[in-house]
Write a structure and sequence with these properties.
- The protein is α+β, with helices and mostly antiparallel strands and 135 residues long.
- It has a single domain (4-134), classed as 2-Layer Sandwich (STM4215-like), CATH 3.30.2000.
- It is built from 3 helices and 6 strands.
- The protein has helices at residues 4-13, 16-22, 73-87, and strands spanning 26-28, 39-50, 59-70, 92-94, 97-106, 123-134.
- Strands 1-2-3-6-5-4 form a 6-stranded mixed beta sheet.
- Helix 2 (16-22) runs antiparallel to helix 3.
- The longest helix has 15 residues, at 73-87.
- The protein is elongated.
């Protein structure tokens, strides 16, 4: 079983460029009730291991939805810019996996956030990540 979500969280949480905006409030799939804003939330939409015809694998392609949520537009944008700066084009060690390439794609204006139930007092900058990694 892959540890990619935990490894991605660890990479983001260990980067001061991001944590200066959200501290370590970086949540995978579920946001604890006690979490304050600003925070980052993400979920894995798909994670497929590519196999050769002889059944050899180890190369994954994952799709991740990531949201930067804050009480101000500037706060959400600052966190979003920091995440994009860290992850777009990133390749290297990521915990127990090797990231071969990460690409950040902006969500469109019609995007409906997954991490908040309503938009009262929340600003969201959302991205899609395409992540290629080996285990």
């Amino acid at each position: 079983m892959t540890t990619m979500p935990q490894d991605l969280r660890t990479l983001i949480a260990s980067t001061t460029g991001v944590t200066q905006y959200v501290s370590t409030r970086i949540h995978y799939n579920r946001i604890p009730e006690s979490s304050a804003r600003s925070h980052i939330w993400f979920r894995v939409g798909s994670d497929n291991e590519e196999l050769t015809l002889d059944g050899t694998g180890g190369i994954h392609e994952a799709s991740v939805d990531l949201e930067c949520v804050a009480t101000t537009e500037g706060g959400a944008q600052n966190a979003g810019d920091a995440v994009k700066s860290l992850l777009h084009g990133y390749a290297g060690s990521m915990g127990n996996i090797t990231c071969d390439g990460c690409f950040v794609e902006d969500k469109d204006d019609d995007y409906l956030p997954y991490s908040i139930s309503d938009d009262s007092g929340a600003h969201v900058v959302a991205y899609g990540l395409r992540l290629f990694y080996t285990t």
